[in-house]
Amino acid sequence: MNNCQLKDNVNYSKKILIIARGGIGDFVFVIPAVERIKKTFPKYEIHILASNKEVVALLKDCHWCDQIIYLEETIKNMVRVIKRLIHLRNSRYAVSLVMVGGAIRSAIIPLVLGIKIRLGYDIPTILCLGKIVYTHSLKPEKKHRAILNLNLLKLLKWKWADYTTNLIRNISPDISLSAQKYLAQFKFIQNENLIGLQIGSSKNQKWKRWPSLYYKELIHIINSHWKVVFILFGNQSENQLIDSIIDRSDSDIKIIKITDQNIIDVEALISLCTVFIGNDSGLTHLAAANKVETFCLFGPTASWESYPYGSIDNAICSNKCRSCYHMNKLNIPFRCSNKIPYECLQSLDPAMVFEQMRHKLECLLNDNLKMEESKITYLQ
């Protein structure tokens, strides 16, 4: 590890470029590091380069982000992207940091922009590439992605031992109130417990999904213990997937489907949940960042790398053939090579999953119900 020090230089502007080209989950794990950078270097502007529209929307209310740079990296827009990168060279950034989860293209961008100090994690799969694209680099470690992003700051000779690595997003009161009004149209009563579920994942990572029939069984088990309201979150392409669960569920189970809201409204609705259950995907990590008790179901991805931050016990995974995706360093399309395809997810029995989260559910749902009942008694 070779360190550098950020010093004022007349040839470069007081701007720091953060490359965060991943999805929503990757964005969540960037928050602690970028907040710390802003506090450590308050005189510098923080520019975030993203390639996900939903991440761009979430960035707009981040006080630590001075400018958002959106690159829509499709073949159709490639000429426009190249022109944008050429224009960005004029920004003369003092330093760049490539956050975990952006693949090889993220590492190449700062080199193309001519940034003098380029920080990131080495790419051991491709011989010597890390030494070419980065001026200062770290070797990847078996740690949570949020910690890995924070560790990049060590390259700037900064010690963060005294810093509490909180990973929190706060919903504004106005947006939260709007979310409550939205739920009212489904005859949602304010003292009811909400359990949010993300049964899908990004279209390129469908292999992260726990089987939809398992989700249906889990909903039935939970409903047999507590009368709660379930919110199934997804996008328009997951309508059929969610409908298949609703259609097969008993009529006495109250389920709300959310597939037509923008990411800001979705996050506000998630923040109202008592519990959130989902695959290793964006909305699940967004729930944890909003201080919702979050349980994450893991298959091929590594739980130690992206468990709900601060709650490693809430990472639910099988003890059979798993955590192989982290070996896919080139980020090429992933396929299961096991004799039983995706046994890691198939072997996660709904009853077993429920037992693993049962104690916390009892504490959360029972205590919340007692608290609301005491309010009602007082009002009467």
Short recap of the structure:
This protein is of the alpha/beta class and 380 residues long. Helices cover 39% and strands 15% of the residues.
What does this structure look like?
- It is a single chain.
- 39% of the residues lie in helices and 15% in strands.
- By secondary structure, it is an alpha/beta fold.
- It has a six-stranded parallel sheet with strand order 3-2-1-4-5-6, with helices on both faces. The chain has a six-stranded parallel sheet with strand order 9-8-7-10-11-12.
- Helix 4 links the parallel strand 4 and strand 5.
- It is globular, with a radius of gyration of 22 Å.
- It starts with 14 loop residues before the first strand and ends with a helix.
